[in-house]
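ENTRY TYPE: paired fold submission
RECORD: A
CONTENT: sequence, then structure tokens
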Amino acid sequence: MVTDSRSAVHLAHEVSPLLQALMASWAEQAGVRALLIKGEITNQLRLRPPRGSLDADLWVSPDSFDAFCALIATRGWLKVHDSEALGEKILRPHSATCRHVAWPAETDVHHYFPGFTAPAQEVFELLWARRVSYEVAHQTVLGVDRVGAALISALHHLRSTTSTGHQSELAYLTDQVAQWPTGELASLADLAAATGATVTAGAFLDAVGAPVDPEQTSDRDELARWEENTRGSGLVGFGALHAIRAAPWRQRPRLLWRHLWVSPEILRARDPSVFDDGKPMPVARARVRRLGGRGARLARRTPRGAAMITISPQVAWVDRGESVWLLHLAAEDPTPVELTDSAASLWRLLPAASVGELAERVGVDFSVPVDAVIADVENYVASMLDQGFVEVA
């Protein structure tokens, strides 16, 4: 494992678009209907101030939720198994948080989203019918449309009423949506009514001028849970107190102990890198690699003629300015790879008609003779071929 001096939060922001593309790709390959929510598509829709994400949020059809979680578990993405052990939560479990030892970002696989009080499968079908395509990390993915994204974002912020960050982003979202045309605001109100979110999202709908039918009703139990959660938002231990109070008397001491003393199994699920065969080790960050020359043995694989060098369609990538992050979606164990310095500069010059043309571009950009860089460029292309990041034709 390669350590990195940057914070885990910074690295998560760097690679989260790759993770979003990966999860969407795995769902498609498995024939699972899934939609990206929040994250990168919310940035593209300008429904929040531009910022990075710590995770990938994927809303999976509820009838495929268990199968998809089982699939990604076989690929190293471990579910955080603490919901049942720690008792009944105020809001019903709506997602599985999954983590991988080689990734600084995590995946939240949703089968439901708090604030929608209609049956989970019905809500998903309504959002699926409105799905649209986006480009994330240079990959085509499916996500919720602008109306659905706005409603999900509003509910996400409204359940954290004491968080200044959430309230700031809710104000930004409200300002953006209030400028929508009348027809789209009516569509927002219709979707809220169909998904049972007219009460839970009522403050937001009123603020943006979306017409709401006062006769629309919500599931009383779900609404009561929502309201209780909102009242306790920001209070440390409020969720634990609810779980203990909701349990039978004879189970309360056990639950109290579990909240106070978290088991190694739960700790490992929360962060798989904390334990290695029972021995503590540093918290894992992204497995990063710097790609440069890989030696003369790879140069033999470099195409020397007029062979077009293109980026593989199986590669998701993001350019972060100081570096470029790559992810091969079809790899056996996909983990992010970082290109820095000249390796990142060479990547930005692709596609190229040949190694010679690529070397000529490098010579122009860096004001050096082609003969001085051709060997390094050959090794670089060979390295990219060796790992499946580029193709030649």
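RECORD: B
CONTENT: sequence, then structure tokens
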Amino acid sequence: YNVFSTYYFPDASYFLLPSRAWEMLIGGVAFLFPWQAKETYKKTVQWLGLTMILSSYFLISSKTPWPGYLALFPVLGTYLIIISHRETSKVTNNFLFHYLGKWSYSIYLWHWPVVVYGYLYEVPHWIYVGIPLSILLGYLSFTFIESYKNKDGVNFFSQHCLVMGLIVLGLSCIQFYRTYSFITQHPDRIDGYLIGYHYTDGSGKIVLNSIEEDTIFNPQSPHKLLMLGDSNSTHYSYGISSSGTLQIHHKWEGSCFPFINANTKPYAAWMDEEWKSNCHNLYKFVDKHKNVPIIISNQWGEREMACTRINCDQKNFDAKTYDRILENELNSLIAYVGNRKIFLIGQVPAPLKSMVKCMKRRDTSECERETNEFTGNRLHINSLLEKIAKAHQNVIFINPFDVVCDQENRCQTVIDDKNLFFDSGHLSAFGSRVIWSEIEKQIIQKLDSTP
């Protein structure tokens, strides 16, 4: 089950108990069923366990699906060392290992906030600070919290653990409510750190994590359009709802092209049969309202395009193949739509290096405010989209680069100390508002000029 779930449900397998329980249960097996063996056999078992643990450093990398079958190496290796029970071994029964083992669970608990701090603030060479800091905090926690006893020999924290747990839970709930209330009521204060998926309601409050795959924005507006695409259309949600100018019926499916013939094949665990059906029928959304102008906004990614073929192999997938598929499929979709106006939104100038973490520092002077290095082949793709649009009288290409970039394609990534981008491909809520405002102006101009 562990191996199966790791490949098909990687996030759930990593965080949830069903796929991780065996790692803890094997420790119980070592305790309940100890081995009785000669010293010679114990030594062999111990060295076999050490070999398996050390081999993990060479077999496991950041790209390894986890836990997966390779988790057997460190887990089984640890099990073998425990059951060998060699109290005379200088390898495992020494001063250093003795105290590290005693403090180990405290170290484990403390290393998480230490790791997050270093990652969040991008502290250079944090590993050399984080490891000894985790050990120090683990020692202090073990000595003054876990092992501390009063004059009667009672550990205060153990005696009052239920009360303290309820106090911590209560304070956490209060803090969560205060944070949630602040974010929803003052989105302008933190919109540089929120993804553009979120949207505002009629009162100006932000609605978090509630974007559906079929949404009508600003239903009171006289200007009505349809919008379809993937998550790179969804990141305009905040900008569309904040403006309130255009009524947009939005339909999207993650990592999906709205093509008629070339359908994206599933390449991730979350791409189930429902996703496959929705993706393959996404283009039919244009039939929902006849004669209504259409906005098409996608990531236009190379990987997604490669996955429109038999498999997702990108080894034999070159730029010419990408251009040919994109041009053929967009022309087919344009023909299917008919003569109504189509607004083709290009790729956003997503920077190669995100500034989100950098802008969370107290000192942001070293954070880049502009760049000419982007993820993917964005300049070429936008040129191709513009070429396709020019071949059709009813298709208007809108280039997001024009909003925040100069003529040399040097683009702003931060404006007024706010991030335009949430990650390496999606706009922040602030960026959504900035870029959508200009896209909207061009759409309204073209709609008003229609005879």
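NOTES ON RECORD B: The mean pLDDT is 88. Residues 341 and 394 are 5 Å apart (CA to CA).
STATUS: closed
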